[in-house]
Amino acid sequence: MSLAAYSLYAVGIGTEGTIRQISAQGMDPAIQKALLSGDGSVEPTWASVIQQEPRATFTTTQIKTVLDLVWPYGYVIPTNSQPLDLWFRKRAAGSTFASGSDHVKCTINKGLLVPQVIRATQGQPATIDCEVVILWDGTNDPIVIEADQALDDLSPVVSEVYTLGPWWIDNVKYEDSIQDFTFDPGLRIETVKGGGKVWPLQASIHDHNAAMRCTLLDLSILDKTADLGVFGKAISTGVTRAFLRKLVEGATYVPDTGTGNEVHILFDIDEAQVEWENFNAAHGENAALPILCTPLKETVGSPAPALVELDTTAFINNTPLP
């Protein structure tokens, strides 16, 4: 067999859309073997795949497109009979990529695409991690892997990029002090299988425990009389929110407000417990304080607000959502 090398490509969902700007992707077969020996033997003499729960993951900077697709509880595969395709693009010796039917296509016919951690760091583009919980459709392998495939034209381009934005914690704005931000939706997915079948047939969300974190240089937030104090604070009425700021190609970033500037991403929380976490100061460096915001489900209102309200077409301000 000749030498071959592959890279990644955009993620296709048929007529339902394309996820571009992929920076990493992978697959875990998650094979669970039955490995047996007996009769006093010290080496295994028999093996079988008794269960398998494969997963696929990818990371992208195309955050708005992904959130509009999967928020809040994931995207069901298939939707409108469209599977999800992950590609591994073959490289060409002495050039860039092969142009013929040389690529590897991984088709997922049934599953649940869920958002995982969103990360933004000062001076870096923000990213979102996604996971595909793969299920059996009753006919095909959970992942149909085909070599020597012609690459779908998914038009891989960069069209939307975000970076770190400001926070409000209980009506107090923190902007210049913020160094990073993470948001974890905290979706715990459980799969169901039975009857001795190897692959899962169903996936559902059993817990939704979101967590929003940032790191601040301003330690004055620890002052109990003004802000957190030693054990944090409960928030039920003040504005607590975080933004991702949209960047402009060839320039800097979109202004916070103004006509046509509703392009930033907002995570808004009505009720939460906010606290500080373990931190240290080192000689010659600035102390950095991790802050954890745990959203709580508000029960007032009809319907009650979501655990975390998302707006992917937002101004950057502290005006409450309608």
Structure description:
The protein has one domain (6-314). It has one helix and 25 strands. Helices cover 2% and strands 46% of the residues. Strand 14 (162-169) and strand 15 form a beta hairpin. The strands form six sheets. Strands 4, 7, 8, 11, 12, 16, 19, 20, 23 and 24 form a ten-stranded antiparallel sheet that branches. Strands 15-14-21-22-25 form a five-stranded antiparallel sheet, covered by helices on one side. A four-stranded antiparallel sheet has the order 1-9-10-13, with no helix packed on it. The chain has one helix at 63-70, and strands at residues 6-8, 11-12, 18-19, 22-28, 31-36, 46-52, 55-60, 75-77, 84-90, 101-108, 111-121, 127-134, 144-150, 162-169, 172-174, 178-184, 187-192, 202-208, 211-216, 233-235, 240-246, 264-269, 272-276, 289-295, 309-314. By secondary structure, the chain is an all-beta fold.
Question: Top keywords for this entry?
Answer:
single chain, 322 residues, mainly beta, ten-stranded antiparallel beta sheet, five-stranded antiparallel beta sheet, 1 helix, 46% strand
The unreliable regions are none
Order of helices and strands: EEEEEEEHEEEEEEEEEEEEEEEEEE
Task: Name the average pLDDT.
Answer: 93
- In whole angstroms, the N-to-C terminal distance is 62 Å
Shape: globular
SSE-based structural type: mainly beta
Q: Report Rg.
A: 23 Å
Tally of individual domains: 1
